[in-house]
Amino acid sequence: MDKIYIEGLRLESLIGVYDWERTAPRPLLVDLCMHCDLSRAAQTDNVTDTIDYALVAESLERVAEKSSFELLEALASAMLDALFAEFDVQEATLKLSKPDILANAQNVAVQLTRGRP
Ligand SMILES: Nc1nc2c(c(=O)[nH]1)N=C([C@H](O)[C@@H](O)CO)CN2
């Protein structure tokens, strides 16, 4: 299956388990791999025949801005729900990173893989 990637998408969301995390939005990073059929767009060279990754990025940004989950898992799942609701994606893997949150680690992340419901 063909794939479209969005890598290192910077977002902000109010997210975290602890009170000190819930006073301001925090920077997050998304890496997304979408399985989809790109054969028509490869022939027509027309963005309306494919999944417009710019629109996908905007959708993920909207989910992040509007939500206030505690866990990365919950936000990643909501992002995938929006992706399948709005775009013709067959399967997707989304990695959601929260950099610089642990004193002794560069990054923490969760990764979810889901098929079209
Ligand atoms: N599996 C997870 N573990 C933790 C999360 C999370 O989202 N998923 N979040 C936290 C805190 O919010 C963390 O960012 C600060 O300690 C802890 N563990």
**Distance between the first and last residues' Cα:** 17 Å
- Class by alpha and beta content: alpha+beta
Ligands and ions found: the ligand Nc1nc2c(c(=O)[nH]1)N=C([C@H](O)[C@@H](O)CO)CN2
CATH class: Alpha Beta
Mean model confidence by pLDDT: 98
The name of the CATH architecture is 2-Layer Sandwich
Cα shape: elongated
The CATH homologous superfamily is termed GTP cyclohydrolase I, C-terminal domain/NADPH-dependent 7-cyano-7-deazaguanine reductase, N-terminal domain
- The ordered string of helix (H) and strand (E) elements is EEHHHEE
List the total number of helices.
Answer: 3
- The number of E-state strands comes to 4
Q: How many whole angstroms does the radius of gyration measure?
A: 15 Å
CATH fold-level label: GTP Cyclohydrolase I, domain 2
Instruction: Work out the helicity level.
Output: 25-40%
Cross-sheet strand order for the largest sheet: 1-2-3-4
User: What is the domain total for the residues?
Assistant: 1
Instruction: Give a quick account of the main beta sheet: strands, pairing sense, barrel closure.
Output: 4 strands, antiparallel
Low-confidence stretches: none
